[in-house]
From TrEMBL:
GO cellular component term, pick one: membrane
InterPro entries given in the database record: Spore_GerAB
Pfam families associated with the record: Spore_permease
Keyword set, alphabetical order: Germination, Membrane, Transmembrane, Transmembrane helix, Transport
Name recorded for this polypeptide: Spore germination protein (Amino acid permease)
Subcellular location: Membrane
Gene Ontology process terms (BP): spore germination
Domain of life according to the entry: Bacteria
Keyword check for Transmembrane helix: yes
Organism: Carboxydocella sporoproducens DSM 16521
Amino acid sequence: MSKTAPAGKLTRQQLFFLISGIQIGVGILSLPAGLHKVARQDGWISAFIAGLMAALGLVFIHLVCRRFPGQALYDILDSVWGKYLGKFWTGLFIIYFWATGAVIFRIYLEILQIWMLPLTPRWVLIILLMLPVFYLVFNGLTVLGRFAEMLFLISAWIVILLYFPLREAHWYYLKPIGTAGLKAILLGSFKAALAMLGFEFYWLAYPYTSPRRRLLFWALAANGLVTILYMAVTVIAFAFYSPEEIESWRWPTLGLLKVIQFSFIERMEYVILALWVPVVLLTVIGMFYGAGLGTAHLLKRKDHRYLTLLLVLLAGVVDIFLPDADKLSKLGDYLGYAGLGLGILLPGLSWLLASLLPRGGMRNERN
């Protein structure tokens, strides 16, 4: 018999902050360079298409969850795909969530070491940053939702800083529009979609959110905000750097901040990197939370907290020995494609299959 998930642990506003926060992560720091290599000056169009792809995934997830309104993600997989295929998909989700969390954490560690703390041993940073991760994953979704809400409110002002590199923008770098070609733009959209992953957390959070009226609107609004932000950062970076210069940067978004100087702050990028730590941790925690829930489901445990802590601890140990971010880029691409499959294709197929099965039940909700 399928388990039910109690609604009411998250508000719709907290869901908005969770999805947008988990989507952003570290991808925004390197996205402009990656898009320019593929789609040249039309990379911002690729970012827009990627946002539409993520929105499609959210719609599919919502349709599936509406058909099984009282079930969590892994119970839905069992209901739709059966016992064995359901467990197979659950296993893939566990691997994807855990590996993505570990890789994102490792990449940001390297950014901190290169830009701010070159003499600090990696294991010291891992211990310091894992402490808030332990606390938040142990205290569950309600605390995580409040953390996301607080984080959004105290970090939203960072967007204003994009005004400063605008003053040195060369808009002719963006012309002519469309010369990269449709194929390059579409390939770039997959590159941008990898940076927007995190929207699949909607599948985890849906059964715990209340009220559910207009819930899809809040999820799409979160994705829309991230899409606009990614497009803005991409356009500004393309206009700020020359075509040759932007591809020489590993994290061009950080380079945009180097032009910002105040009489009392000379290296603004250091301040932003420090403030960005909790944003990255939110993404990492969301991934580990999903892996912990899946592991508890496979092992038939009611309390996932200690299993999640073990997964976090394992990731911390593995991150000590993982190679640098350049060598991890290929693994990150594979994880990204897996995320697109689990976040868009699987929900779409699950919805089609569930429509043919007399399981669950379509709940009469207004959207």
